[in-house]
């Protein structure tokens, strides 16, 4: 069986995890956690990064930092993971879904302005498959209407837009280190990227359960106490140790995934040219990270048939999100602005092929041949 995913493992993770286990501190912001945060800040040139237990937690922190409350509206695509919406709905916001672009499956930047009301507070672009949204347009709208931008770059580490790393363009960015992502902290993990100095101090407080504990350990206060709302948003150091093993070879992991992505694209291009399927689209302004390789087929019926065919040949492929606006909670907590021209239709015909660090040429060839066997 060719798995859909294998968590990235480079060979040093065991050593680092054991080192953390034997240290005097395994909780958050210990040695490996600091190393990882310094790595992100130096590589992506953002003001501050904070490791979190998940991308979900990072999004929740962003919602708290922006004082999201009852009556606020937050604009995002419906084609995204539930955490994107949950983080803001938990604070009482109304989620306003807008349609996606069929070429990139990203938020349609031309549909945002009509969805803005006097209650709108945040725009949340989701960089699907590690391919950037049109951030120049989104940031211009944010400036025009005095809105905040939180980039959901869960899939976007090592991707960029016009030379800028995803997650560093909006006011905040978030990464995921879930085991299905390009880089992992051993199963679950995330990162909050803070691109405005104004929010750094409060972010540390919120992350430390609402206390000024970080300032205490830096010698800035003589004792720490409860000063704000917050929660337990620190990533433990054992998880950070695993992540450090990935970060040391981040470029190698990136090259490997891009090689697999390109081989899929080149081999399957004849099927796309003959109109049997559609392949991913990457705008010239974007550099992607090979996070996923997807196909789009005729409709839901054909996708189901292809998934079954692949499974019968021991190839584990999957589909992706059911649009949030059609879910029970989405109907209750949000609304769709404008027409659902592409979100539902495109989501029903998208299928993801196996993609992970270390996917062998033999495995890629089998996947490609099986897709050909279905169509030809």
Q: How would you sum up this structure, described in words?
A:
The longest helix is centred in the last third of the chain and has 24 residues. The relative contact order is 0.18. The strands form three sheets. The chain has an eight-stranded mixed beta sheet with strand order 1-9-8-5-4-2-3-12, sandwiched between helices. A three-stranded antiparallel beta sheet has the order 7-6-10, with no helix packed on it. A two-stranded antiparallel ribbon has the order 11-13. The chain has 376 residues and is α/β, with parallel strands linked by helices. The chain has 14 helices and 13 strands. Helix 3 packs parallel to helix 4 and helix 3 packs across helix 7. Helix 6 links the parallel strand 4 and strand 5. The protein folds into two domains: 235 residues, 3-Layer(aba) Sandwich (Aspartate Aminotransferase, domain 2), CATH 3.40.640.10; 126 residues, Aspartate Aminotransferase, domain 1 (Alpha-Beta Complex), CATH 3.90.1150.10.
In terms of topology, how is this protein built?
Elements: H1 13-21, H2 31-44, E1 48-52, H3 55-65, E2 73-77, H4 82-89, E3 94-98, H5 112-115, E4 120-123, H6 135-145, E5 148-152, E6 160-161, E7 164-165, E8 172-176, E9 190-194, H7 200-207, H8 213-217, H9 237-247, H10 250-273, E10 286-287, E11 293-296, H11 300-312, H12 328-333, E12 334-336, H13 343-347, E13 350-353, H14 361-375
Helix pairs in contact: 1-9, 2-9, 3-4, 3-7, 10-14
Short structural description:
The protein has 376 residues and is α/β, with parallel strands linked by helices. Helix content is 38%, strand content 14%.
